[in-house]
Amino acid sequence: MSDTPRHVLLAGATGLTGQELLALLLNDAGVAHVIAPTRHALPAHPKLENPVGVVSHLASQLHGPVEAVFCCLGTTIRQAGSREAFRMIDYDLPLSLGRHALALGANHYVAISALGADTSSRVFYNRTKGELEVALQKQGWPRLTIVRPSLLLGARREFRLGEVLAAPLSRVLPGRWRGIEAATVARAMWRLACTPGSGLRIVESDELRELGD
What we know:
Layout: E1 7-11, H1 16-27, E2 33-35, E3 48-49, H2 55-58, E4 68-71, H3 77-80, H4 83-103, E5 108-112, H5 124-138, E6 143-148, E7 152-153, H6 161-170, E8 180-181, H7 182-193, E9 199-204, H8 205-212
Parallel strand pairs: 1-2, 1-4, 2-3, 4-5, 5-6, 6-9, 7-8
Helix pairs in contact: 1-7, 4-5, 7-8
């Protein structure tokens, strides 16, 4: 890989994709330091700085240098408990993270959105994701990469009935609609971060599969 970020900020390190990405970062010889704020402590690692607490309160306490930031934050309305709580996790926190990361010197934001993200969608989830994409673009990132995976597959720590029921069907759907392993998305995100570029890039699920396989 030709442009490996040495100092990385990762939000959502305990989630399905985030834990896969964290493992990649810690095992990459080119990475010197990973900041991963979480609600509960992560296993210690020489490269890892792990501020523990409420992530929304930790963002303003982070310090640099940071070159690239990854946002793997995400939940469901059912898990969050309300639309307001969902929006705080899937919209407010990623934006706050972006503002603080820019102040720390980051020049590349790699964010997980969702297939179907659209500001005009009648589906609250998809509309929120679309609004996040637009808001991130307005932050003025030198480089912004938005990935839109389909249904994420893998063993979650929390039970999500809808995903359990949908997973078998998603595995046989065509193209970008086919379910994708979280580990594949994590590998794709890291490869995108390590490839030179600038400006906005939106990567749909079928391209993520090609990059991460």
